[in-house]
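hey can u check if this looks right to u? its 123 residues, i copy pasted from the old doc so theres a chance i mangled smth
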Amino acid sequence: QVQVVESGGGLVQAGGSLRLSCTASGLTFDDYAMGWFRQAPGKEREVVSCISDSGGSIYYADSVKGRFTISRDNAKNTLYLQMNSLNPEDTAMYYCAANRNFPLLRAGLLNYWGQGTQVTVSS
């Protein structure tokens, strides 16, 4: 049984930073590409960033390029998202997803999800 668990969300002021973590079990972690998605109230779930199984390929949405950094530690079965220079538009529930193939761009095609962690950025 695959389990994906996110952590690290919270309330931060604009300009601040947060680091999200995601652990995955029940699968061979380094066989899976991983991704971060977010969903704000009334909006569709959108990709933020994703990383290939080896970490050699990375994708960022234009809205987060230069501010967010995705990384993974395959020895710890853990995915990270370092978020800097946060602004109120980054406020959303952030989800971690796992998929055999890279990139992870379309939420509707993915099967393995965490429960999400809330990120709120105050102005």
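The mean pLDDT is 97.
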